[in-house]
Sequence to fold (127 residues):
Amino acid sequence: MSAGDAVIRLSIPAQLRFLRIARLTAAGVAGDLGFGLQDVEDLRVAVDEMCAALIEDADPDTDFEIAYRITDGALEIDGTCPHVGVVPELHAVARELLAMTADEFTLDADADGRRFHLVKRRSDLTV
Fold:
């Protein structure tokens, strides 16, 4: 497996106090990929917002899964939580933060639970 194929997977309790694990992992991977300081900070904010929405109202005994996929010049992050329910409406401030800090993001749900997809590209590679 080359670095371009690498996927890091975590299983984290669906509790707000553990979201820092998701943020720190994202920041560490982005730093290793040569993301600049602002890109790393943007990614931390975006991951925090998406994970918080993912686990909103989830049973604290539930775990959510997060996968960090390294691609060429970008980090793609997918989160899933078996918590079934309506996808929470992102607060206007959260939507604005995500629009400023992430290159792409989606949050949705189906009968299997909630999921998000987040993409952050290195700003020095975008034109």
